[in-house]
Design brief:
Length: about 300
């Protein structure tokens, strides 16, 4: 290997590993970029700066950030379920990196749209929320941890909570929009209150436009006021509901899960790190699903 390239890899690996907590598999992550080439994004060594062209308040603690893509031939080059890594110098120059899944169509050639939830003491989310239109953000990637194959499964179940909706929405919106994809998708989505549900309009529109291919059920932990009760489930997604309402482990089905640590542990067990799925546990293990039937975003 060229010595200059080796030096550049060594210089980037320490802060990349520490920022996204991938430890000993950092080199594997670097190599992963070769399987996710893009005409826009340059992998992990050479970042690109994208300007913010629009900021939209989604809920009281989430915003949408639209970034302008450079005028390059072709589309963004992102694959279905792929993410990009945002990086910034925060708190006096300390570099922080976090993975985010774009929520707009993967074949977009003009913008990348991210949904960001402001987390308590969140370094990167706090950085995002201090940005304004015209500011730039640095991105690396793309990263893909799952290769989706059209029509491989008869059904797909998406289990999400809070800001974990982003990879699930990306998957659902792109799949159901394809007339050649016959897979039926069901989303179970949990939030604190009705007003805390990001992308609710888009999810409802997907169900309205593709009722034969997409269904969403909302769970809220606080009782809604002046709302139709039949539109929501009060409480958390639990084992009994899963057993009675999603395809069984014996069917040709796949489950994708994304959400906060507590939610992940209850559903399927937390991920080990960005690329390693970790042990399957939780409700899905108890209901008989195999590790290959469950993917953790």
């Amino acid at each position: 290997m060229n010595s200059n390239i080796l030096l550049r890899q060594k210089s980037i690996i320490p802060w990349l590993a520490g920022s996204i907590v991938i430890g000993g598999i950092t080199i594997t992550l670097y190599k992963a970029r070769r399987t996710s080439r893009s005409p826009v994004f340059n992998g992990f060594i050479s970042p690109i700066d994208l300007p913010i062209v629009k900021i939209i308040q989604e809920t009281h603690d989430t915003k949408r950030f639209l970034f302008k893509l450079p005028e390059t031939p072709g589309k963004s080059g992102l694959s279905l379920t792929s993410m990009i890594l945002a990086s910034g110098n925060i708190n006096g120059g300390k570099r922080v990196i976090r993975p985010y899944t774009p929520i707009n169509k993967i074949d977009s050639d003009d913008t990348i749209e991210l949904l960001i939830k402001q987390m308590p003491n969140g370094k990167m989310s706090g950085h995002f929320f201090n940005l304004k239109e015209g500011d730039t953000m640095q991105f690396r990637g793309p990263v893909s941890t799952y290769k989706y194959q059209q029509n491989k499964f008869d059904t797909v179940t998406l289990l999400g909570a809070g800001s974990g909706i982003t990879p699930l929405y990306q998957l659902a919106s792109n799949v159901v929009a394809s007339p050649d994809n016959m897979t039926k998708i069901k989303l179970l989505y949990g939030n604190k209150t009705i007003n805390d549900i990001p992308l609710k309009k888009e999810l409802d529109d997907l169900q309205r436009m593709h009722p034969d291919k997409f269904q969403v059920e909302y769970f809220v932990s606080e009782t809604p006021k002046n709302q139709k009760m039949e539109s929501f489930h009060i409480g958390n997604i639990n084992k009994t509901f899963l057993k009675d309402n999603i395809p069984s482990a014996t069917e040709n089905t796949q489950i994708f899960v994304c959400g906060p640590t507590g939610f992940m542990k209850a559903m399927c067990g937390d991920k080990k790190n960005l690329l390693v799925q970790g042990t399957l546990s939780g409700y899905l293990k108890e209901l008989g699903y195999s590790k290959t039937q469950v993917h953790k975003f």
